[in-house]
Amino acid sequence: MELIVLGSGASFPVVGDVRNPAGYAAVLGRDVLLFDLGFGNLLQLFRAGVDPSRVTDVFLTHRHPDHVGDLAALLFTLRYDLKPKSGRLRVWGPRGIKRFISDLSKAYAPWLGPRDYALEIRELKSAARAQGRDWTLTCASVPHPTPALSYRLLYKGKSLVYSGDTGFSPELAEFAAGADLFVIECTVTKPSEAADFGHLTPELAIATIEASGCRRGLLSHLSVESARKARKLAHGSRILIARDLMRLKI
Ligand SMILES: [Zn+2]
Ligand SMILES: [Zn+2]
């Protein structure tokens, strides 16, 4: 599989180090799975040369705008222009995601409703499983101010873990154990901010990568300050720093 980083930035674009908010595409043969779709990321998908009609599933980690801001843009595009090639789009997320998408659809009614394809919204509890044509996925709850999930995707013997937004949790390293690629957030630089806002510092993210024993770790969800610190701390070929439209073979 190939991972395309649509957005390597933190909560919003900032002057000086322009990065799109959170979004990732996992390309599995002809199917594409999205992990989060923060605002601006539909356009990033086009810039990466990925046809959105290939998207079969969207996994949302939580409903902060930097992770879901372009969901309306995707549903609007699929209604009027590009239909999902599989005939179905599934959107997955933690508790509350059904209500969120229902409210969003009502606010925009009728322009997000599916036409000529099936839209399925599914809520996942921690440790639940999802399955596609040739992949499986599990999830785990992570600490954040709203219900939030991390995801672990398995495809043809290779595993991809995406932390989403998370405070420090030893269980996350266990969840990512032995992953081929572990995408992990590092938004803040002060331990007090990490504790207060449910995020990680580069030090905590790197410690989690090391504890997981994963093959490669990718530091992402970067602010100007955390990117600067991550560049200082990351060493060797095992720990990478994300940038927009980066592509990694897994
Ligand atoms: Zn975020
Ligand atoms: Zn968040």
Q: How would you explain this protein's 3D organization?
A:
- It is a single chain.
- The chain is of the alpha/beta class and 250 residues long.
- Helices cover 27% and strands 30% of the residues.
- It has a single domain (2-249), classed as Ribonuclease Z/Hydroxyacylglutathione hydrolase-like (Metallo-beta-lactamase, Chain A).
- The strands form two sheets. A seven-stranded mixed β-sheet has the order 6-5-4-3-2-1-14. A seven-stranded mixed β-sheet has the order 7-8-9-10-11-12-13, with helices on one face.
- 48% of the residues are buried.
- Residues 11, 22, 64, 66-67, 165, 221 line the site of one zinc ion.
| Ligands, deduplicated | zinc ion
Radius of gyration from the CA trace?
A: 17 Å
Q: Characterize the overall form.
A: globular
Distance between the termini: 5 Å
- Compute the number of strand runs: 14
CATH fold type: Metallo-beta-lactamase, Chain A
The CATH architecture term is 4-Layer Sandwich
The CATH class is identified as: Alpha Beta
In a nutshell, what does this entry contain?
The protein is of the alpha/beta class. It has helices at 41-47, 65-68, 71-80, 97-108, 170-175, 191-197, 202-212, 224-233; strands at 2-7, 23-28, 31-37, 55-59, 88-93, 118-123, 129-131, 135-141, 149-155, 158-162, 181-185, 216-220, 239-241, 247-249. One zinc ion (ZN) binds at residues 11, 22, 64, 66-67, 165, 221.
Tag the structure with descriptive keywords.
250 residues, alpha/beta, Metallo-beta-lactamase, Chain A, seven-stranded mixed β-sheet, 8 helices, 27% helix, globular, binds zinc ion
